[in-house]
Amino acid sequence: MSDALIVLAALAAIAAGLRAWRHLHYPSFWLAIGFPLTAASVRASWRRVALGCNLTKKRQRWWFTTVPGAIASTGLVKVRRRFQRVAVDTKPFMWLPLPTRHGWRVTLHTLEGQTPGDYADAAERLAHSWGVHAIRVSSPRPGRVVLMATMRDPLVKVNELPPSPDLLKVTVGRLETGQPWTIDFRTVPHWLNAGATQSGKSNLANALIVGLAAQPVALVGFDLKGGVEFTPYAPRLSALATSRIESVSLLADLVALMIDRMGLCRQASARNIWQLPPALRPVPVVVLVDELAELYLMADKSEKDEIAKTSTALLRVAQLGRAFGIYLFCCGQRIGSDLGPGVTALRAQCSGRICHRVNDPETATMTLGDLDPAALASARAIAAETPGVAIVAGQDGQWYRARSFYVSEQTAEQAAQTYAHLAPSWSEITTHLPEPITA
Ligand SMILES: Nc1ncnc2c1ncn2[C@@H]1O[C@H](COP(=O)(O)OP(=O)(O)OP(=O)(O)O)[C@@H](O)[C@H]1O
C-alpha cells in the first residue's frame, strides 16, 4: 500500500514538474541558465571546433618543445625542452557569445586569407559540432564575421499578424533570426514571389492585403486564375483584371498613369512623388499579380501581340514605377526563362525575391540564382509540411529563411470589407489621363 502511494506521489511530482517546465518563460529561463552554460561550452570547444571545420591557420610561434638530447649512461635518450619557433594551429579570435531570443551570436576576427564565404561553407559543420538548429553567417565589416546560432527552428510556429502602421510597409511573417519579416515597398519596390502549388504564395498575398488595406494606398489586382484569388477582395481593390484582355487595358492605364506622374514630377522639379508637396502627391499604387506565367503563356499565334503588349507594359512599370509610386508584387508557380525574354527582364528589375517550396530547380534558380548558392540549396530543402516557409532576399542584401503569418482568406476578405471605404476609385485616379493607345 505504502509503495503504491510513493509511486503515485512520484508520478504526481513528475507531472507537476513537467507542467511547471512547460509554463516557464523560455527567454528568461534561457538567459538565466541555458545561455551561460552554452556560452561557456562554445568558448571551451572553439579550438577543437575550428580545427574540425578547417577554420584554423598555421602560424609560426615561439613554443616550448621537447627534443631528443644526449644518450644517458643508462642507454636511454634524454629529452630536453627547448624554446623554438614552430608552426602551430591558430584559431580565429572569438569575442564573448551574446544571447539572442532564439540562441546566441558571436563575433570572430577572420584570419589572414579568410573570407566570410569560408565560414558560410563551414556553417553546417559548425551547427552539427555545437548541436544547434542552424548557424547563419554575416559580415558587418571587413575582417569580422558574426555567427548567429538558432537553438531550435523558430519557424515551426509563428504568431498572429501584427498591425502595420507605416505606409507601404507590412510585417508579413518572421525571419529565422526571430526578427520580423517586413516587406517595405519604399525600400524594395518590386517583388517576385515564387512557389509550387500549396506552398503558401496566396497566404503571403493575403498578409500583404490585410496589412495594406488600412493604409492610404490603391491596390490593383491581376488575377490570371480567372479571378478566383482576388475577386473576394474586390471591395478594397481599385481595379481588378481577371483575363489577358483586361490585363492589357489595365496595364495600359498603369503605364499612362506613370507617364502622367512623370510630367507632374518634372513640372515640380521633383525626382519622385515623395519629393512632391503632400497636397500634390498622388496616391501610391501597389500592383498584385497572381500567376505571372499566365500573362506570358501563348496558346496560339493570335495571342502573340497581346503577350508582347502585356510583357512590355509590365516591364515598363517595373523599370520606371518606383519613382512614380507604382509597386509590383508578382506571384508565380513557375518562373522560367522558357516563358520568354520578358520574364527574364522583369526578374532583373525585381530586387525583392521570395522563394517558397518549388517543384523545379529552374524556378528556384530564376528566383534566387544570382544570390548565394547556399540560398538555393536552402530553398530546395523546404519541406511540403511547412507551407509559408520561404527563402527571402531583399532589404539588407542578405537572404533569410522565413515564414509568413497564417492569414486565412476569411481574414483577408474581412479586412477588404472593413477598409473598402479607403479604396480610391480607379476612374478617379485615371480620369485625367489621355486615352491609351492600344493599337
Ligand atoms: N504561413 C503559413 N502557416 C501555416 N499554414 C500555411 C501558411 N501558409 C500557407 N499555409 C497553408 O497552406 C495552404 C496552401 O497555401 P496557399 O493557398 O497560400 O498556397 P499557394 O502557393 O497559393 O497554392 P496555389 O498556387 O495552389 O494557390 C493553405 O491552405 C494554408 O492552410
- Multimeric organization: single chain
Q: Please, what is the average pLDDT?
A: 87
E-strand count: 16
Structure annotation, total helices = 13
Protein name: FtsK domain-containing protein
Binding site for ATP: 195-202
Keywords: ATP-binding, Nucleotide-binding
GO molecular function: ATP binding; DNA binding
Chain-wise SSE layout:
Blueprint: H1 2-23, H2 26-52, E1 57-71, E2 77-90, E3 98-100, E4 103-109, H3 116-121, H4 123-130, E5 134-138, E6 144-150, E7 169-175, E8 180-184, E9 190-194, H5 201-213, E10 218-223, E11 237-241, H6 244-267, E12 285-290, H7 293-296, H8 304-320, E13 326-332, H9 341-349, E14 352-355, H10 361-368, H11 373-380, E15 389-393, E16 399-404, H12 409-418, H13 426-430
Parallel strand pairs: 9-13, 9-14, 10-11, 10-12, 12-13
Antiparallel strand pairs: 1-2, 3-4, 4-6, 5-6, 7-8, 7-16, 14-15, 15-16
This protein binds adenosine-5'-triphosphate.
Adenosine-5'-triphosphate binds at residues 195, 197-203, 333, 387-388, 403-404, 406.
